[in-house]
Write a structure and sequence with these properties.
Blueprint (H helix, E strand, L loop, with lengths): L12 E4 L4 E9 L4 E5 L7 E3 L4 E3 L2 H18 L2
Antiparallel strand pairs: 1-2, 1-5, 2-3, 3-4
């Protein structure tokens, strides 16, 4: 990653630009070249190359937080 495009921070939200999927950053393994993302409403995490993980916009992050809260209220995730 370049200085202009730093990797997203752990526990922040990011978008996998390959699939346009939104996820919470669970882990950064930059030497191995991957970011582990997890869907905000729960589910299986996936790996994304850091160059394809862009920080989520404020609107995307808000959408993710609402999805997470809805999942917790429904399922106790």
């Amino acid at each position: 990653m370049s200085r202009e495009n730093p990797p997203p921070l752990p526990l922040s939200y990011a978008v996998d630009t390959r699939t346009n999927r939104l996820g919470q950053v669970m882990d950064l393994d930059l030497p191995a070249g991957r970011v582990r993302l997890r869907p905000p409403q729960g589910g299986l995490p996936w790996h994304c190359p850091p160059e394809h993980a862009r920080p989520a916009s404020e609107a995307e992050a808000l959408r993710a937080r609402v999805a997470r809260l809805n999942a917790v209220s429904r399922w106790g995730v």
